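Narrative summary of target 7.
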Amino acid sequence: MRVERHYASGLPLVPLDESLCEQAFLNLVQNAYEAMQDEDGGGTLRVEVQLITQNGREGVELRLADTGPGVPEELREEIFNPFVTTKKTGVGLGLSIVSKIVDGHHGSIHVENAPRGGAVFAIFFPLDETAEALKRVLGRARLQSCRKSLPF
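Modeled conformation, tokenized:
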């Protein structure tokens, strides 16, 4: 699998729980890897991180795009629910866990299919709400920046 990294310059530090976000990011990367196994060369995972404004909130968006078959349209609304899977041997908890972790950071996640095929998962972490929510839940000790949590 080939990985393309595109990180915007001047990204602010995003206070996140490092171990939880690492788990979420690894779940998404593992899903992408498994989706692209049948491709010559293993496919391409594109990672983009940029500062955006979503619904009037400033934050950081992480987009993970693979070149696999994508997510069937009928499953896109349900894919983050427990026990929903597209895999023959999957249990359907990975994306549910990812969604819970993102929700715990007052963020959002959605999936779409790329125009040329493949799934695109977009995660948004708001800058202001994320910090306050995590301070209440975790205290300052486990807060890290988003860039430190990216396993790629």
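The chain has one domain: 2-7+15-149.
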